[in-house]
Design goal:
Layout lengths: L18 E12 L2 E12 L3 E5 L6 H8 L12 E3 L2 E2 L4 H7 E4 L11 H11 L4 H14 L15 H12 L6 E5 L7 H16 L3 E5 L3 H7 L2 E6 L2 E6 L1 H5 L6 E5 L3 H10 L4 E3 L4 E5 L4 H14 L5 E5 L3 H8 L14
Parallel strand pairs: 3-8, 3-9, 6-7, 7-8
Antiparallel strand pairs: 1-2, 1-4, 4-5, 9-10, 11-13, 11-14, 12-13
Length: about 325
């Protein structure tokens, strides 16, 4: 693992945003196999939080614990979901949340509308209210025309939309989506992203697990990388990208004199004399870019083009989920 990826701990201070999910020291083992080895989570209300990790890292186990489907392990610290203590009042937690798992909850033998009405009954909604909510959600998820068709005839994207619509029948304020777009085509995946953004704009908190790094980059306010039962790193997508070496600023010149002047004056620069470009190591931060622009202005050198290149979440993922396990998670101030 590159040395710049090796983490140092920065703990959250008391000024953090109100948490929809807050957990400290969550543990879970199955026999001799440790799945979760003391993870901490803080998910601000009204945000999208993405949990990434390789297959078998424990992402689904985290979702099952936070949604009360399984119990955390002995020695786990406090877990609060929607402000409720998960151990002391799991029923209050269930009233706050909705869960869409990897396996669809849709019954293919009945219609989409019947699936929705069944969920309304399970949420103890009066008949009239259940029909109103069903109609509203079917329209919101563009399923009205297909509402009276058997769900087995739905495409994968339609089934996934129906799955989430069913989850929303009880008006949860926190939704757990466990790999919601796996198996969907690119168009259906983008439709699902629009749905998730709309939920958050309504104040819903979304806890998302995904194998698609682009998905986390597009949607998440904060991302945590789970590996070996621990959180290897956590922060905004941009903060995580800056953990990985290889970021640089590229300057392109059309004036040979300006190019030579900049090349001679700058330290640690990679030259391409044919293209008249200079590559300067940089984390892409505003501070570093500002310093570079100030320097160019001070020496009277003008570049025709400045572009910033930073590692993407693929780079972060592969760097953090290698064979070397960090001792402490990297965290960033909120």
């Amino acid at each position: 693992m590159p040395s710049s990826v090796m983490p140092t701990t920065q703990r959250w201070d008391g000024g953090r945003s109100p948490a929809a999910v807050a957990a400290v020291g969550v543990r879970k083992s199955y026999g001799d196999k440790t799945v979760l080895d003391g993870i901490d989570l803080h998910v601000p209300a009204g945000s999208v939080f993405a949990l990434l990790g390789p297959n078998g890292a424990g992402k689904t186990t985290v979702v099952k614990i936070l949604s009360t489907l399984i119990s955390p392990g002995a020695g786990s610290g406090e877990i609060r979901v929607g402000g409720h203590d998960l151990a002391a009042d799991p029923q209050a937690v269930r009233a706050e949340i909705g869960v869409t798992g990897q396996v669809s909850a849709v019954d293919g033998l009945i219609t989409g509308e019947e699936n929705m009405l069944l969920m309304a009954d399970l949420n103890h909604l009066p008949k009239k209210e259940g029909r109103r909510v069903t109609a509203d959600l079917l329209e919101r998820f563009d399923l009205t025309e297909a509402a009276r068709k058997t769900a087995s005839t739905y495409s994968g994207g339609m089934k996934r939309r129906l799955d989430i619509a069913m989850t929303l029948v009880g008006s949860p304020r926190i939704i757990f989506l466990d790999e919601p777009t796996t198996g969907l085509d690119p168009r259906s995946r983008h439709t699902m992203w629009q749905i998730i953004r709309a939920l958050v704009s309504d104040g819903v908190t979304v806890f998302l697990t995904t194998q698609y790094l682009e998905e986390a980059d597009q949607l998440a306010d904060r991302v945590a990388v789970l590996d070996g039962g621990r959180i290897a790193a956590e922060g905004t997508p941009e903060q995580l990208k800056r953990l990985i070496p290889g970021g640089h600023v590229r300057l392109r010149f059309s004036d040979p004199s300006a190019y030579r002047s900049a090349a001679l004056a700058l330290d640690e620069v990679t030259r391409d004399d044919d293209a008249m470009t200079l590559q300067i190591p940089s984390d892409g931060s505003q501070r570093e870019l500002g310093a570079l622009l100030d320097w160019l202005d001070a020496v009277g050198v003008e570049a025709d083009e400045l572009t910033v290149h930073t590692p993407d979440l693929d780079d972060v993922f592969f760097a953090l989920t290698g064979s070397q396990q960090p001792d402490q998670p990297k965290e960033f101030a909120r």
